[in-house]
Amino acid sequence: MIRDQVTFATFAKSMMAVEEFKWTLEGQLEITALSRTATVDLKKEIVLKGMNSFPNVKITSFQLPGDAPGGGISLELGTMLESPSPIGVALGTIALEIGYNGMKLGTVKGENIVLQHGENNLLLKGVLDPIAANDTASLDKIGVLFSDYLAGRPSNTTAVGISCAPDGVNPVTWLSDGFKTVKLNVVLGSEKPLNIINGVSMGYLDLTFNSANPYNPVVSAPLVNVGFQMPFGFSLGVTEVAQTLALGLGTTPETMNKFATIETPYTPATSDQAAGKIELALNNSIIAGIAGQESLFDQYTYALTSSGAYTFMLSGTANTKATTPLGPVTLTGINFTVPTVLHGLEFLNSTATIINSLDVVGGSSAALDLAIDVTMANPSDFSIATGDVSFNMGAEGTVFGVVKLTDLKLMRGDNKILATATFDPKSSDVGMNLLSTFVMGADNAVEILGFSDSTNIASLAGALKEVNIGTNLPGLTAPLIQYSSLTVLDTTVTSGVVNVKVSIANPFTAGLSISKVIASATFHGAPIGSIDQDISSNPFSIPGKSTAESAALDMTMNVDPVSIAHLLRTLATEAGLDTRPLDAMLTMGGFDVGQEHVEATVELFAGFNLINFVKEAMGALQVDLALTSGLTIGQYQNDLSFSQAAVSIKVDDSIAKLIPIVGQPIVQMIVDAAELSFDTIVLSEPTESTFKVQMKGSIIKTGPMDAVISFRSPLVIAWQGKELGTVTMPDLNAKGGVGATFDVPGDFVITNVEAMGEFAGFMINNQDFVWEISTGDVSVTALGFTFNTISLHKFVTLLGANGFKDGVKITKFDLPADTTNGVALIAHTDITNPSQIGFNLAGAEFSNNFDGIYLGPLASDGAAFFAPKATSSMVMNGVMVHQDTAEGIMAVTKVFGSFLSGHDTALTVKGVSGSGKDGRVSWLTAAFSTIVIENVILPGPDAIPELIPAITMKDMKLDFTQDPWAPPTTSKLTEAQLQSPFGFPINIVELDMAVRATYNNNTVATLDIPRSPATTSSTGLISTQFADIPFNVIDKTIFAGFVQLLTLSPEVTFGLEGASNAVAQTAIGNLELPGVQFNVHTTLKGLASFGGTAKVLSTAVTGATAEHIIVDLTVELNNPSAITIIVGDINFDVLMPDHSNAFVGRVHMANTIITPGAQVYVGVMHLGGEGTDVAAVGAMLTGYLTKQTVNLVISGSDQSTPIPSLNPALKAIKLGSSITGIEPQLIKLISINATTVELSDLLIYTQITLHNPLDTPFTIKKLYAKVEKMCTCFLCPGIYVELGHVDYELPTPLTIGPKETVITEKWPVQLTASLEDMLGLLADGVNFYDVTQVATAVVGDGFLTEMNYNQPAVPYNVFIEGITDTIPPDFCDMWTTSTFSRASTGYTLESLLELLKGGQTNSTLPTTTVPVEVPAIETPIAETTVVEVPTVVTPTAEVPVVETPAVLF
User: Fold this and answer.
1) What are the pLDDT digits (tens) for 241-250?
2) How many CB atoms lie within 10 A of CB 205?
3) Are the C-beta atoms of 1131 and 1144 separated by less than 8 Å?
4) For the residues 1167-1185, what does the mean pLDDT come to?
5) Cα dihedral angle (248, 251, 255, 261), rounded to 10 degrees?
6) Is 620 exposed, middle or buried (0-12, 13-18, 19+ CB in 10 A)?
7) So what's the pLDDT on residue 187?
């Protein structure tokens, strides 16, 4: 038995911690020997081995099977613990805290643990605790611990004892204290590194080699797939991986021969633990060749170039960042060695290499430069960038060029590559043959061959020199010579030489240059011509990728006319052409070449064109060419010979030069008989020496053939024997047997300016004139032939403008704005020009005149077009200039007055000038200055303008106290909208108005406003003001109704009619505008019944008479209008809508002026009086005294005003209102002091403290009051109990002055509550009563009223001797009816009720007390409180000692 736990705990600590300890055994022994028994004292020390903190501990298994449910990682440790002590201990369930490198890892527990001497195998289970994200030091340590374990490196961990529970549940203190001294140092480690990475797939690679670092290519792999398997079961997500890799030849770790390394920093990664897969990317990593292992690197690149699937080795060390249930950790030193496979290039022979196109891009003296478009297939798993690569190009075992692939990048799959090459065909017969067959369109087999210098990258040289790729070179698909063209020269008939041009299509980018041409042309085997020409001084160059035509080459041919005619007719026949028109022309020319003799008629030549005929026939010519040319491409020179059949020969119009011209006399005869006439001529763009014309007319009787008449020199124009100038005339196309109509432009050059001015004036002012037209240089082209030097001489009569008499009409005009010298004028005009000559001028200027007064200039708005024989609409801009004279002002006033009255005005328009694009033209201005056009009508308006469409009185003041039917009226701002028919500013500076106000087409009143100053805004708003002008009423009934509408409605629309005389300030001058009529409707905002609301702001009961109570008040009325009305003394009835609109009094307002906006008005209300409802008056007074909101209606009546014009308006007013009373404060306190005897008689007396809240005295004569209260005591729970009532007529009325507080005499209270309810009301501790009363009172100086009054929560104090001083304060909180008993309190309900009745109980209060321990309220530990509890003594029984619950009183 343990007698001293503390000491035993100390012993236990020592026993577990020390190597050995001493035990002292003391006691008595009873020894029996030799039949004798003796008792001896024992005191013995023995030495025992302690457990020495278990120095030999091993972890036999380390399992992390999964995520712990509560967070962290589940842990299972197989542990061998060796105890050197002979003492065995049944520890039961032990708990240890495990740690590493100074940090706590978690807690583990072992169950049913019994320590014995020697080895003890324990299974400990627990949780590695999660680590806070900001505890990076601990997370780093966890990473090191895990990394060391995976790498097979030992880690020193600790386990510190926490507790022992032998029964598995309850720790034993002394044993646990001893166990806490246990601190185990345990080595954690795996026997060998754990190979968690079991495979690597590089995926698709991108390899980039460069000559500067041939053994350090750059590699990128967008999707490296790493296979892994963790030895633990907890969740792990790899987020980043850093690696150090080694590449080696071989297929197993044992055969691996390293040649390069790759270092990668931390790279984002994703992992799938269930699938055992990590995905990451390599981005621009360096494959660093190992110095001294270049030959192995070369073997690697050769294998990748030559092989299909190729296996090599990867080894290295990986560091990872991962998420775990403990937090993010970093695992380092993960080693692996695995094989991996890549698919190689297969020497690029897995798929045929295709030459898509070949282009010659230039040439040196040694070779041609080629650009080759080739498609090569890369079957490998990688793209490779090798820089510049070169291969030999050859055929049939002969090398004749080199192919270069610049900056070669072979992507996976098909690659379209642009290669360059050099090609020297002259170096071998094979090369020349290839060039010839290529040009002729034949395909050739070629080879692409690697050689020792294919690359300057050492690591690739051995692989690329073995490349051998066969392919096919396609020949040209289009011929070089496209066509040849033939041009007949003017000298061909005599020299036999024609010009030939050859069109060659160059299919190459490089230009071709031909320096000599030797060619022969045959047609059906017969020679046509030959060329032998050295053009080296001017070589024929054909730019790359284009078709060029050579310069003209001289070809000698047979040009005998008969032979040419025969050839032409033969080709026409072979082409299936109709030769009859040709035969007719040959006949007309005197030729006889076997043609048919046909008569030349209109029908025969209809649609026939000889040149087209010849071209069509010759266009069928095709010849066979044999060509040898000296060819240069860049600096490379060679002779190119080839033949090409069926070369097309093109001809042009020059072929007609082979046909003799025989029709000159016939054409002249036709021209002399022709008739020339003009419909219209339009003159435009005039200058001092030139102008343009547009001529429309016809020429008829031009013969049986279609013809083109060309005027190779300008026509000469003369008038009355004077040459005016010359005009160009475009070609005219005449139809055979018909002639030609024309609408053509011409350029007129004035040769005599003075004569032109005279002619223009004559033409404008006369009915007609005659032009003489002549020239000697006309060409006629008929049937494709041109006949020159034909003469023409004609006289033509044309109509003049006749002075534009009755030809000018102004359709409308506007005066839109001011100008610097007046008012702008825009006139829309129609001008009728009877002449065949029209004018399209840059501008034309006139002047407007009226009554001999110059009104101002008027000019065209831009171009002035006077169309010939037509009416032209023209917008003209001008100015009505400022007038400085009275005559000028009068003239303008007449013009305005005529317009404003709806009449036209006749003006005189005079010509001033005509202009071209550069300004006035003198000869044209001289002609225009002769124009005088009388009676040009300035039109009046379609309807008389309404100058004033709106009048608005922005404010108005009416004083009805001065004259009810002619109230003086004032407006500080009256606005009239000026609606000018024009846009120029009109500033009204003065005006008067005679106004008739109308309503429903009836004149209501008049207002004569004298001339007053005015202003006009930019928008034409006229502002003026007037003061105290009588508003003279015409119809009193309508006026009174109008005022009523104005008072009650939000707005009122009425009419304003009359006339105004105004002075208008304009840019022309100050103009009188007399008698401007207006008839408008205007809208005036009304009072809108003050919004239907009168807001009472303050009230005060200040007095009373025998008839009424006087209440001073302030009221806010909102006048939404801009109208001010002086109404004098007014009053309104006060109604109570909650009492059927009972009349309760009247509000009086003196000297009232109603102004705009929300205004405060002072009034006096007489509450009560004659005709009022007494009950409603009392109710209102009651509501006032009890802070009720009393709804009111302020209503007009016949007595509201003595002003007859206002009476209907005020009578109709009904305004909603309300009065909120004052706080109910009449009763300040109820005091009761009674005896039990009075209580038993149900009649007690009270004194009441009263307060008068009014500003006038009142006197109480009689009172009926009821006192009630909500009972909260258990005796009457939740019952609204009437305690009693006062029904008392005061023997002497009680008067209380304004704001005075008094205490009444004692007033009797008749109790009505039961004794139980009364006890509940007295005991519940709530000292407030609700009082309801009806008082007969006199207010002020004699107003008698019966007032109903309610005041809740009136404070009271009650003293009943023997009762209120006996009942404990928390009486009602302690019991319910069921628990209220003598046994629990020492009282009975009956005994307390007897006290209320005034009697004696059958028990008395004892004088002794019994101390009782009572638990204090809300004390968590068992503390006690001593209270003295009275004991109740009963005569017939022993007095028991009662233990009361907690607290009494």
Assistant:
1) 999 999 999 9
2) 20
3) no
4) 88
5) 10
6) middle
7) 81
Listing DSSP states for 232-275 in one string gives S-S--EEEEEEEEEEEEESSSTTT-EEEEEEEEEEEEEEEETTT
The secondary structure of 642-706 as a DSSP string is EEEEEEEEEE-GGGGGGSPP--HHHHHHHHHH-EEEEEEEEEES--SSEEEEEEEEEEE---SS-
Instruction: Give helix then strand counts, H and E, for the chain.
Output: 23, 80
CB of 1302 closer than 8 Å to CB of 1065 = no
Copy the structure tokens of residue 158: 């600790």
**Strand residue runs (E) in 424-525:** 444-449, 468-473, 481-487, 497-506, 512-523
Q: What is the pLDDT of residues 1223-1269, one digit of tens each?
A: 888 999 999 998 888 888 889 999 999 999 999 999 999 999 999 98
Whole-number Å distance between alpha carbons of 1130 and 1149: 5
Residue 116 CA: distances (Å) to CA of 81, 90, 119, 120, 1428: 10, 9, 8, 7, 65
The amino acid present at 60, given as its one-letter code, is T
Q: Give the DSSP H or E segment for 1042.
A: helix 1036-1048
Calpha distance 285→289 (Å, rounded): 13
Phi-psi category of residue 699: left, alpha or beta, with phi > 0 → left and psi -120 to 50 → alpha? beta
β-pair type (837-841, 675-684): parallel
> Are residues 706 and 736 in contact, defined by beta-carbon separation less than 8 angstroms?
yes
d(CA 123, CA 96): 12
Summarised one tens digit per residue, pLDDT across range 511-568 is 999 989 988 988 877 788 888 889 988 999 999 999 999 999 999 888 876 777 677 7
pTM for the complete prediction? 0.45
Beta strand segments in 1120-1203, E: 1123-1136, 1142-1154, 1157-1168, 1189-1195
E strand map for 851-967: 853-860, 864-866, 870-881, 905-916, 919-920, 932-938, 950-953, 956-959
* Positive or negative torsion for Cα 453, 456, 462, 464: negative
- Would the CA dihedral through 444, 445, 450, 456 be positive or negative? positive
Give the whole-angstrom CA distance, residue 895 versus residue 711: 56
Residue 719: pLDDT above 60? Answer: yes
Closest by Cα among 612, 790, 628, 609 to 705: 609
Distances (CA, A) of 1153 to 99, 185, 1042, 1050, 1205: 96, 106, 19, 19, 16
Backbone angles phi, psi at 847, to 5 degrees: -130, 145
Residues paired with residue 877 on neighbouring β-strands, in sequence order:
826, 859
Bridge pairing between strands 205-208 and 382-395: parallel
3-state secondary structure of 1087: coil
What is d(CA 1160, CA 1095) in angstroms, rounded to the nearest whole number? 9
**Could you tell me which residues are beta bridge partners of residue 1188?**
none
Token digits of residue 474: 């396609």
Spatial CA neighbour of 133 closest among 323, 3, 321, 409:
323
- Grouping H, G, I as helix, E, B as strand and the rest as coil, residue 1183 is helix
- What does the pLDDT read at residue 270? 92
User: Tell me, what's the pLDDT at 1382?
Assistant: 37
Angle at 526 between CA 521 and CA 532, to 5 degrees: 30
Q: Which residues pair with 351 in a beta bridge?
A: none
pLDDT at 475: 85
The pLDDT value recorded for residue 1399 is 42
- Classify strands 205-208 and 853-860 as parallel, antiparallel or unpaired: unpaired
pLDDT at 319 over 70: yes
Q: How many CB atoms lie within 10 A of CB 985?
A: 17
Closest CA relative to residue 1031, chosen from 1081, 996, 992, 1060: 996
Percent helix / strand / coil, the chain, rounded to 5: 15, 55, 30
Residue 750 buriedness (CB in 10 A; 0-12 / 13-18 / 19+): buried
